Amino acid sequence: MFSRILIANRGEIALRIIRACHELGIEAVAVYSQADADAEYLRLADEAICIGPARPAESYLSIPRIISAAEIADVEAIHPGYGFLAENAHFAEVCAECGIAFIGPTPESMQLLGDKIAARELAERARVFIIPGSEGAIEDEAEAIKIANKIGYPVIIKAAAGGGGRGMRVVHNDITLRAAIGGARAEAEAAFKNGALYLEKFISEPRHVEVQVIADKAGNVLHFYERDCTIQRRHQKLIEESPCPVLEEKRREELCKAALRVVKEANYVNAATVEFLLDKENRFYFMEVNTRIQVEHPVTEMVTGQDLIKWQLKIASGQTIDLRQKDIKHTGVAIECRINAEDPAKDFSPCPGRITKFILPGGIGVRVDTHQCQGCTVSPYYDSMIAKLIVHKKTRDQAINTMKRALAEFRIEPIKTTIPACMEILSHSDYASSRIDTGFVERLLG
Ligand code: MV4
């Protein structure tokens, strides 16, 4: 096992990684920007190194600054967390060149799965359902129209380098398709320096379900079941849960096995999330693979009792997974609410500022992952998440009830948060019966 690692991230995930390190006897070196100089989580690190100004490009996104910090701190490995450099294949490559272990997959896997067209082809080779669409990239408008007429409208145009909802367009006929291709290509070119596009049949009112997987260097691949992340607003997840409340046991097993096939086909190592869309008949279709630990990983940790960050560290240090699939049991129901500093009255725009009152909820089955505190300041430079509130109970009704109680206990002043929005969703009868799709939050809250 490593004896000392660097965390190339900030906030709640930096703290989460520090905790896993300390339980494994690993020293954790934190980095911080000038905007985070007084952040509480730095006190829990064994060492903290300033890497630059507030702007991410000059600190958390700067490969030379992160690598310099790693060399100065003399670490064996870097954990990238999520966001920032977590899915940057070039960064993983630079780490390798510098003799520093990257706690994640190989640069080659990141490169491959970062290309959504290549990932689609990989899933197909793994005999996993993909959404009917183009074979590879679409060359021009004429080809797109031909394919759209074959699969039938509506269709969705996606960017090969996109993902997470960026650069997508839904079109309903030849005329709008022709017009959308040029715009989508220009947008993708500008945003990702890659104008490659592909086409899929548009699945209406889907659910978003994803499977947590881990794989070691010896080729052992295990799944930790699924998470339902249908409660989103403009591609920002708000509430996640496990299990998916509408999946029958047989379909769920098929889903998890499909995720394993995708990861095996990619010769993948470390933690991955395989994302699927679920249509109204509960048929699942492969969407993409996320090559990082995700924000919502605690949901899986609560229902499986497994520490995913520890698995990432063990796998990266070369350990094999000493677990069998049949030993990984799913117990009860976990729900996570993301508590963001956002003002619902201002279209959920970020609401940074000093927190004068911060009182955490507690009680049986309640977990709060946060780096914030009374007197802390929510910085305008970074994402607005303040805390993740996770509950774990025997049944879904109990989990919803406990989550509502915990949300009511949570005191954050004076900044506006997503607590009332989460409360409204959890109190809705359609959420209780889980008659929801990815448009639910926008219909309810705008
Ligand atoms: C789709 C889709 C419907 N049909 N693909 C959005 C995120 C990105 N990973 C893919 N996304 C979608 N792809 C087809 N063929 C609908 C969405 C989508 C969505 C997916 C998951 C969660 C929330 C969503 C919100 C809007 C659209």
Write the layout of secondary structure elements.
Layout (H helix, E strand, L loop, with lengths): L3 E4 L3 H13 L3 E7 L13 E6 L10 H11 L3 E3 L9 H9 L3 E2 L4 H8 L1 H10 L15 H11 L3 E5 L9 E3 L2 H19 L4 E5 L5 E9 L5 E13 L2 E7 L6 H17 L4 E9 L5 E7 L6 H8 L3 H9 L16 E8 L1 E2 L5 E2 L2 E2 L2 E3 L6 E5 L6 E2 L6 E9 L2 H14 L1 E3 L5 H8 L2 H4 L7 H6 L1
Parallel strand pairs: 1-2, 1-4, 2-3, 4-5
Antiparallel strand pairs: 6-7, 6-8, 9-10, 9-12, 10-11, 11-14, 12-13, 14-21, 15-16, 17-20, 18-22, 19-21
Helix pairs in contact: 3-4, 6-7, 11-12
Question: How many domain regions?
Answer: 3
- Biggest sheet strand line-up: 13-12-9-10-11-14-21-19
Assign the structural class, choosing from mainly alpha, mainly beta, alpha/beta, alpha+beta, or little secondary structure: alpha+beta
Name the poorly predicted regions: none
Q: Percent range for helical residues?
A: 25-40%
Please give the largest β-sheet.
Answer: 8 strands, antiparallel
- Which percent range describes the beta-strand content? 25-35%
